[in-house]
């Protein structure tokens, strides 16, 4: 078994990209209520703060801050994927299991990056919020409903017209 090297720092803030196996799927937004319930359940079981998040049809990006004595983001993602998968299968069925009996809804791994400082946080939050425009799902950031962008506007962090429209772009070296 390959041992993936992940940076685990108790109390740190992390950026994540988590993706469905089928990159053409709309499962995350088609079942947004199940995803929200799963997230609320995980936060209740193993508290953490969701600093920023965007849910797209087949992937999501998030900034999470863990408690001071906790670095177990992998366990939280595993539990979230499990809860969401069970909810979707109970509602729809239609997903196959592999030879190990695992459902084929999610990609096995996820991308993680430990946030280094305030500038790194802002760049990743901007990337998260601009992502629906980048993927041409909407022309303006404010038009995407499944994003913490609206919370940032409410707190005065962003103006409602932040990000302009798809003709404008953000610069930054972010990966998916």
Map the helices and strands.
Layout: E1 13-19, H1 27-30, H2 32-45, E2 49-55, E3 59-65, H3 73-91, E4 111-114, H4 118-134, H5 149-154
Antiparallel strand pairs: 1-3, 1-4, 2-3
Helix pairs in contact: 2-3
CATH superfamily of the domain at 13-116: Transposase IS200-like
Amino- and carboxy-terminal Cα gap? 24 Å
Put simply, the count of helices is 5
**Could you say which structural class the secondary elements and strand pairing correspond to?**
alpha+beta
Give your account of this protein's structure.
With 176 residues, the chain is of the alpha+beta class. It has helices at 27-30, 32-45, 73-91, 118-134, 149-154; strands at residues 13-19, 49-55, 59-65, 111-114. The chain has a domain at 13-116: Alpha-Beta Plaits. Strand 2 and strand 3 form a beta hairpin. Helix 2 runs antiparallel to helix 3. The longest helix has 19 residues, at 73-91. The radius of gyration is 16 Å and the shape is globular. The two termini are 24 Å apart.
Short key terms for the protein model shown above:
alpha+beta, 176 residues, 5 helices, four-stranded antiparallel sheet, Alpha-Beta Plaits
């Amino acid at each position: 078994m390959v041992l993936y090297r992940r940076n685990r720092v108790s109390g740190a803030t992390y950026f994540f990209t988590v993706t469905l196996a089928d990159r053409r799927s709309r499962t995350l937004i088609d079942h947004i209520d199940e995803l929200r319930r799963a997230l609320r359940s995980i936060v209740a079981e193993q508290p953490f703060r969701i600093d920023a998040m965007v849910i797209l049809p087949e992937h999501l990006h998030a900034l999470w801050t863990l408690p001071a004595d906790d670095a177990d983001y992998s366990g939280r993602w595993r539990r979230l994927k499990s809860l969401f998968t069970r909810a979707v299968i109970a509602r729809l069925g239609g997903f196959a299991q592999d030879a190990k009996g695992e459902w084929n809804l999610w990609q096995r791994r996820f991308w993680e990056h430990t946030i280094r400082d305030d500038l790194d946080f802002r760049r990743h939050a901007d990337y998260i919020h601009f992502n629906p425009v980048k993927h041409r799902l909407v022309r303006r950031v404010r038009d995407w409903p499944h994003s913490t962008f609206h919370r940032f506007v409410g707190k005065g962090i962003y103006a409602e017209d932040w990000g302009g429209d798809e003709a404008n772009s953000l610069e930054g070296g972010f990966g998916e």
